[in-house]
From TrEMBL:
UniProt key word Ligase: no
Location relative to the cell: Cell membrane
GO CC entries: plasma membrane
Protein name: Carbon starvation protein A
Domain CstA N-terminal: 4-347, 353-489
Source organism of the structure: Halalkalibacter alkaliphilus
Membrane-spanning ranges: 74-95, 129-154, 160-178, 185-208, 214-235, 244-264, 276-296, 317-340, 375-393, 421-439, 445-465, 472-495, 501-521
Membrane topology value: Multi-pass membrane protein
Pfam family, one: CstA
Length: 538
């Protein structure tokens, strides 16, 4: 099969889903463009900062995309490209898109509070503690695994390290020009993108060569600084500018694919069981997270995006639209390796140090068809991927700080409300993972925890919608499916790690399993309690 055919079919399906199912969700959630959003109402210049539609899309898309739609699909194609594509399309439309959009709207209707706060209002303080505990554990895994991936990418492609450092300076200057000097956004964007391209050229000329542990320590310091700075100074402008890199990568890859017209040589289906990955169910559904559904997205929607949304009407474009765009990115990722034979795919994955290098090599090969050297194209793809890995890293650290502050409020010494203390507290566990583990060991546990977080966020939305008297079937169905998938996956991980004598990962999976079971019980009690079955304003 020619990959162009598959890419076009997927693109059309996603576009139709945005218009048809996105409109259905907007109607069910009773979106009101005249309702004042928390970003506009509070507007404190630090956390609550109204952002223009394209700026917020850049921030949100860059944050949720990260390395997830690259790492997951490449790891999952060992089962064949067809199961991966089906899960990406169906999952993004009916599970991930619903999860992201409803999480955002739930937060907006509750003063841009986190999903944990929404749970507290409808399920009580015990439910909030359980959810936040699960969130912090998941965020530690996210920060740890992405720190490893970024460090490995910088070692494999040192040009990316130089350019990424320069990107940070460009973002800070951009944020100052737009937010303090009120420079026209279009003019600032043109200057910012030009500065980023110059940074790429400088990176190619002056690569920085450091070891992975050294990079991990540097990234640890960066994540700390990014977490405590005002959102307008670094996080928002860097994500916005980085989004142009990803838009460029997607467009460049699509043009290259149209010219190259690659035939898919990887098999469509290899079987229900893989010798190293295990069984297709539930492993496929936790391996491909970003691109189909990712619980991390609910933390982004309710953690940073809800504090920047200037109009409820833009929520569908920002949350549902970004999820479908990420799904298309995941399809492109499959195309970056599907033209290889199984033997070549395995050899490239091993030789290039993992999914990021493998993805960059494939995209670079396609982009070389429209005139640039393959080496330059591969470097650009690696730079783009590393930029988005950093985006996930710093955003997850900030969200982890929010969660630590929320769970310790009125329950621990006041020092934990301090941004510096809360950030440091969350980074300790992530640093231990990054300095002692490998992404292959952590990814299955991260995937399970991440998907379970998605199921729990959907549970919170169901409880909220039920209490408002709204219909819930379109959230209940994906919620039940994700609970089945992730409980099964955690069970498999506990068994596998126990048999392999990896007791740390066994215990981690066991703790996550217990937390999610108790939270599911709390949610069921909340929905079944006649005393709390009163209708509240949506």
């Amino acid at each position: 099969m020619n990959f162009i055919t598959l890419m076009m079919i997927c693109g059309v399906i996603l576009l139709l889903a945005y218009r048809i199912y996105g409109r259905f969700l907007e109607k069910e959630l009773k979106v009101d463009p005249n309702r004042t959003t928390p970003a506009v109402e509070v507007n404190d210049g630090v956390e609550y900062v109204p952002a223009k539609k394209p700026v917020l899309l850049g921030h949100h898309f860059a944050t949720i995309a990260g390395g997830g739609p690259i790492t997951g699909p490449i790891a999952a194609v060992v089962f064949g490209w067809l199961p991966a594509v089906i899960w990406i399309i169906v999952g993004s439309i009916f599970v991930g898109g619903v999860h992201d959009y409803t999480s955002l709207q739930a937060s907006i209707r509750h003063k841009a509070q986190s999903i944990g706060s929404v749970i507290k209002e409808y399920m009580g303080g015990r439910g909030q503690i359980l959810f936040l505990s699960f969130s912090i554990a998941t965020l530690i895994l996210i920060v740890g695994v992405f720190m490893i991936l970024v460090a490995n990418t910088f070692v494999a492609v040192p040009e990316a390290a130089t350019a990424s450092i320069l990107f940070l300076g460009v973002a800070i200057i951009f944020g100052f020009l737009v937010n303090q000097l009120r420079m026209n956004l279009v003019v600032a964007s043109i200057l910012g993108v030009a500065a980023m391209l110059i940074s790429i050229w400088v990176g190619i000329q002056f690569p920085i060569h450091l070891s992975a542990p050294t990079w991990s320590l540097i990234l640890l310091g960066y994540a700390y600084v990014a977490s405590v700075l005002p959102v307008w100074l670094l996080l928002q402008p860097r994500d916005y500018l980085n989004a142009f890199l990803l838009y460029g990568l997607i467009i460049g890859a699509v043009i290259g694919i149209l010219i190259a017209s690659p035939t898919m040589q990887l098999p469509a289906y290899t079987g229900f069981r893989h010798e190293t990955m295990g069984f297709l169910f539930p492993i496929l559904f936790i391996t491909i997270a970003c691109g189909a559904i990712s619980g991390f997205h609910s933390l982004v929607s309710s953690g940073t995006t809800a504090k920047q949304l200037d109009n409820e009407k833009n929520g569908k474009f920002i949350a549902y639209g970004a999820m479908l765009l990420e799904a298309f990115m995941a399809i492109i990722t499959i195309g970056s390796v599907a033209y290889l034979t199984q033997a070549d795919f395995a050899a490239r994955l091993d030789a290039l140090g993992g999914p990021i290098g493998t993805f960059a090599a494939g995209i670079g090969y396609f982009m070389s068809y429209w005139g640039i050297s393959e080496a330059t194209a591969v470097t650009f793809a690696a730079l783009t991927a590393s930029a988005f890995l950093l985006t996930t890293l710093d955003s997850a650290t900030r969200l982890m700080r929010y969660a630590v502050q929320e769970i310790t409020e009125n329950r621990a010494p006041k020092m934990f409300q301090n941004s510096h203390v809360a950030t440091t507290t969350g980074l300790i566990g992530a640093a231990a993972l990054a300095l002692t583990g490998t992404w292959e060991q952590i990814w299955p546990l991260f995937g399970s925890a991440n998907q379970m977080l998605g199921a729990l966020a959907l549970l919170a939305v169901v409880v909220w919608l039920k209490k408002t008297g709204a219909r819930t079937f379109y959230v209940v169905i994906p919620m039940v499916f994700m609970f089945i998938v992730t409980i099964s996956a955690l069970g498999v991980l506990m068994y596998n790690n126990f048999m392999a004598s990896n007791y740390f990962l066994f215990f981690s999976a066991f703790v996550l399993f217990i937390l999610c079971v108790f939270l599911a019980i709390e949610g069921w009690r909340s929905m079944s309690d006649d005393k709390s079955d009163r209708t509240v304003k949506m």
